[in-house]
Design goal:
With 278 residues, the protein is of the alpha/beta class. The protein contains 13 helices and 10 strands. It is 44% helix and 22% strand. A hairpin with a 7-residue loop joins strand 1 (2-11) and strand 2 (19-26).
């Protein structure tokens, strides 16, 4: 469980709070998608979960953030890392090895995973992401998208309770993006809590169970995907492009052609279209 209580944070170099008075709970097994404009505070939110704030980025920290009962201020980053696996937006800054296999081995050995489990974990993680063929490649020879997949595989090998990802599909094509989110959804079904910052809202809505909208450091909306999408007008006021099926629902409702709630997936969109066609 992740809990934010009256949490605010201002970077040492900042003139205003990056996040302001955040109060929310992410329950075990949630799949939370974080959306918002550039500079809204999304990345800072992820830093608060994995302890990068305040241990690596100093500043004014107010309130409390707890992860599985651990206070992120009182707990060392390595203690939090046992529970929270992170995939950062800047993948290159995350890499510590020169070869793909070594990148996965580094985390496993650092966290004291028994040696008789390491080979299986590396093999399974690479297979799940579909990059077994990259195992012996130098990281410098990989594309940005391939590096993102390696970063996700390295986290999967550790099997944390919580996975936090900051725009994990930023350099991936649509097929690879779907692959990553399908895998995250499967991990979520097995009990892993997922927290993902994502610009591709339509993609996110197909896999997440909850949406968190942050704007100018404040939590504006937080609830199930359906609850948040039902407030599409408010999202648009903030400057968030809602999924096209939601925009279509809004127009069809205005025309009096449908009475169903806003669809959150293609099956519901198809049912909406059939209702509109009568």
């Amino acid at each position: 469980m992740i809990e934010f209580k009256d949490f605010s944070f201002r970077y040492a170099s900042g003139k205003a709070n990056a996040l302001q008075n955040v109060n929310l709970t992410i329950d075990d097994g949630d799949f939370v998608g974080i959306i918002g404009n550039s500079g809204a505070g999304k990345t800072t939110f992820t830093y608060a979960v994995n302890g990068i704030v305040p241990h690596h980025y100093k500043g004014d920290f107010y309130g409390a953030v707890t992860v599985n009962g651990l206070d992120t201020v009182d707990s060392k980053p390595e203690q939090l890392a046992v529970h929270v696996g992170s995939v950062f937006q800047d993948v290159d800054a995350q890499m510590v090895a020169s070869m793909v296999e070594d990148e996965l081995l580094f985390g496993l050995e650092n966290f004291g995973i028994p040696h008789d489990q390491i080979e299986q974990r590396v093999t399974e993680a690479l297979e799940e992401i579909g990059i077994s063929d990259l195992r012996m490649r130098d990281l410098d020879s990989l594309s940005g998208g391939q590096k993102q997949k390696v970063a996700v595989a390295a986290i999967l090998a550790l099997r944390p309770d919580i996975i936090v990802l900051d725009e994990p599909t930023g350099e991936l094509d649509p097929q690879s993006s779907e692959q990553i989110y399908s895998l995250l959804q499967e991990l979520n079904r097995r009990g892993t809590t997922i927290v993902a910052v994502e610009q591709k809202i339509g993609l996110l809505c197909r896999y997440a169970t909850k949406l968190l909208l942050i704007d100018k450091g404040c939590v504006m909306l937080y609830g199930t995907v359906r609850e948040v999408l039902q407030q599409s007008s408010r999202m648009e006021e903030i400057g968030i492009h809602v999924p096209r099926i939601v925009s279509l629902h809004k127009e069809l409702t205005r025309m009096g052609l449908v009475r169903c709630p806003a669809p959150v997936n293609m099956d519901e969109a198809e049912a909406m279209a059939k209702e509109a066609l009568g």
